[in-house]
Amino acid sequence: MVSISWPRLVGRPLLYSISAFASLGVFLFGYDQGVMSGIITGPHFRKYFNSPNSLEVGTMVAVLEVGAFITSIAAGQVGDIIGRRGTLFAGAVIFGIGGAVQTLTTGFYVMVVGRVISGLGVGLLSTIVPIYQSEISPPNHRGALACMEFTGNVFGYACSVWLDYFCSFIDSDLSWRVPLFVQCIIGAILAAGSLIIPESPRWLIDVDRDDEGMQVIADLHGGDPEDLAAKTEFREIKERVIAERESGEGRTYEAMWRKYKRRILLAMSSQAFAQLLTGAVISYYAPAGWLGRDAILMAGINAIIYTLSTLPTWYLVDRWGRRSIPHMAIALGATGWFMYIDIPQTPKAVVVCVIIYNAFFGYRYIEISYIFKILPLTVRAKGVSLSTATNWAFNFLVGEVTPYLQEVITWRLYPMHGFFCVCSFILVYPETKGVPLEEMDRVFGEDEREEALENESEVTSLIPDTPRRGRHSRGWINRVIGGTNTRALYEPVASSEE
């Protein structure tokens, strides 16, 4: 038998390959969010489910978030125990099982069960993929790579809508079963790929698998284990892990909330407003108000523009930062206005407003992409799990009540979401552009607060020689970073500093 030797990826090819694979994870739950938007308007679907009312439709669409909410809370603990890669595999397998149940559904309740199961997988993936991506990305490219993930999410939504459109020409129940079956294929690909990609080096170092962690870091820096930049990054991460252990900082949710409450609230509120800005409304119910196949076609055109609008963020996020812009509120207000005056041009005007909204919503993702890296390694998975759980809770709320609100408050729905947009404008602060994960304390002023507390305790302590490794380790890291992205300036700590 002739053996095949596959080329070993290192450096940027490895980083981009991992990012592309991670994008498949967000493609998957982007697909799952969008696939129902075209299905629920189809005649065969409505006939099979006995013309479901608005609450039944809302339940079938939004119940996915119930499962996602449950596992997104657990994902923090799971990700710390079995690693980022193992959590990816588990999420992909569960998602595929849920897709199979939906495809073979025999009625409303089986569909609901299938959506919940898929949600369990989505909750794991939506929590762990951004963590994994942030932990393998260099600080000067992390924002761009996160935006690539979001493009993958929106592209998944666009693919689901266009598949719904083409399958709408099938004159049988396959018109809605085929799009649901594609979920199983995507889940299988993701599960297989998760067995190939490297584990997060930060997680490996955190569980004392230093040699493996160093190897992954070396591979990401070009493959040379003697590379100075790779060694510097390894030392930075290891010093941070040791400092956090010596500080006695707990890893419980209670300890995390007590020390990092500001960051947790910032992460959770950003995710909540991401849904209240009506992105879920557009994704789930974009065809609403149109008839038949034209509804899906309009959603498909909108999805293409939505996807294209995310591409500039690849370049802009690490140059302009992550703060929001107000154009979405204007577009949403205009949508409500045109629906209120109800003139012959209203349908076309609403389409234009929605397209403008989605174009700027694509840019807005640079505002929320940063929240996955503002927590330290000890509590990062747990903090992101709370943030993601908030996302799915509000996603469920929006998905469940939107069909009802569209009937009751009609045009007022869109200005309401525009108001939420204005509220979110001031949320994203401070800026984290180009900041390494180990230096987030400096951004939030916690280095200074901790140093002040240490100085105070030194004055009053009966044991003046108490070591303060945590402060010194961050001090030399600051000198290494020097306020730039250059990592080749590493020098060992002088003995006089110890």
From TrEMBL:
Cellular component, GO annotation: membrane
Compartments (UniProt record): Membrane
Chief location bin: membrane
Lipid bilayer topology: Multi-pass membrane protein
Keyword Metal-binding recorded: no
Domain of life: Eukaryota
Major facilitator superfamily (MFS) profile domain: residues covered: 18-433
Classification via NCBIfam families: SP
The family this protein is said to belong to: Belongs to the major facilitator superfamily. Sugar transporter (TC 2.A.1.1) family.
Name this polypeptide is given: General substrate transporter
Species per Swiss-Prot/TrEMBL record: Lactarius akahatsu
